[in-house]
Amino acid sequence: MNGQRFISTPVPAAPQPCSPWLRLAHDFPVEDSVRLFAQPCLGDHALHYFREGSGSYELRGETVPIRPGMLFFVRPGEGYRFTLDPGVRVRMYNLHFDLRENERSYRPFPVPPEACRNQEKYPETLPPYQQLANRPAYEQCFLRLLDAASRIGVEAELERKSELLKLFAVLHRNLSLSPGRATGEFHRRAVEAAIAELSKHLSGNLRISELASRVGVSRALLCRIFREATGESIQRYFVERKLQAAKSDLLYSRLEIKEIAAKYGFADVPHFTRRFRQITGTTPGQIRKK
User: Fold this and answer.
1) Does the residue 9 lie in any domain?
2) Separation in Å, CA 197 to CA 15, 82, 203
3) Is 227 in the same domain as 160?
4) How many CB atoms lie within 10 A of CB 240?
5) 6: in domain
6) Taking 80 as the threshold, does the pLDDT of residue 12 lie above it?
7) How many domains does one find in the chain?
8) Beta bridge partners of residue 82, listed in sequence order
9) Does the predicted model carry a pTM greater than 0.85?
10) 3-class DSSP string for the chain
11) Which domain holds residue 256?
12) Burial level of 275, CB count in 10 A (0-12/13-18/19+)?
């Protein structure tokens, strides 16, 4: 085809924001006299990045240590509180934005808390906090946003949208780099949520893409962190849980084997028996005889 390249983009696990509106970019060297910051309810999104500093940050009922390179993502309707250590130099790069530009996006900062009722929130594919492994990439995006925020015109507006989307990509990429303790905690909660969802669906089937969507992470990330946490693939774990429940029914219920097979989503008795033998080394009939 004369050297042509024809590439169709894959379908995403979940729709992504396409037109964010930057409300505020703030390069913030914190004065020594101010050590406590708190906001019970935000009306828009906020990204609080600590280029320098130490202390503790409270978000979603958790208290997380502040250290250089930590980023906190506060969504509309959420509150935060952070305390900075005395005598420590602190510099923050702060951003406030709406996920999608709309007629209410042009109100000045700060946005009143009640505005959160009309705000679309960024999906949970990004955790509430993470330690950035590639700090320069994030900081360069921020500085370009800071520059674009000072200019007017269509070109500057498009630059702000473009750089915000690049910044989101930096944060998503960070999850696959060198996960720090904060990112590891988010992964742990995602795996726990996935296990809880699987437990609710033992009587049927749940596609991995749907499971990932419910948990709020990408399919690829969920498969990786699930195996890291459990030592098994999602598919094998799900089948094992189904068979554990089926074994209990075989031992303690009066259901026929074909009823148990149907109860746990197996196509027929031969399929059920084959999978049962693969995982347990025995057959449903042998368990029933015990």
Assistant:
1) no
2) 21, 33, 12
3) no
4) 14
5) no
6) no
7) 3
8) 37, 57
9) no
10) CCCCCCCCCCCCCCCCCCCCEEEEEEEEEECCCCCEEEECCCCCEEEEEEEECCEEEEECCEEEEECCCEEEEECCCCCEEEEECCCCCEEEEEEEEECCCCCCCCCCCCCCHHHHHHCCCCCCCCCCEEECCCHHHHHHHHHHHHHHHCCCCHHHHHHHHHHHHHHHHHHHHHCCCCCCHHHHHHHHHHHHHHHHHHHHCCCCCCCHHHHHHHHCCCHHHHHHHHHHHHCCCHHHHHHHHHHHHHHHHHHHCCCCHHHHHHHCCCCCHHHHHHHHHHHHCCCHHHHHHC
11) 236-289
12) buried
- Give 155-173 pLDDT, tens digit per residue: 999 999 999 999 999 998 8
How far is Cα 106 from Cα 102, in angstroms, rounded to an integer?
A: 8
Give the whole-number percent of the chain exceeding pLDDT 90.
Answer: 38
Long-range own/partner contacts, residues 140-143 (CB < 8 A, 24 or more apart): 141/166, 141/167, 141/170, 142/25, 142/49, 142/93, 142/95, 142/167
Please tell me the distance from the alpha carbon of residue 216 to that of residue 13, in angstroms, as a whole number.
10
Contact 226, 191 (CB under 8 A): yes
Per-residue pLDDT tens digits for 13-48? 555 556 899 999 999 999 888 889 999 999 999 999
Q: Which residues of 28-49 are buried (b: 16+ CB within 10 A; e: fewer)?
A: eebeeeebeeeeeebbbbbbbb
Asked whether the beta carbons of 273 and 266 are under 8 A apart, the reply is: no
* 205 shares a domain with 171: no
Same domain membership, residue 65 and residue 167: yes
Task: Tell me the per-residue pLDDT of 215-269, one tens digit each, with 9 for 90 and over.
Answer: 877 788 889 888 888 888 999 889 988 888 888 888 888 899 999 999 998 889 9
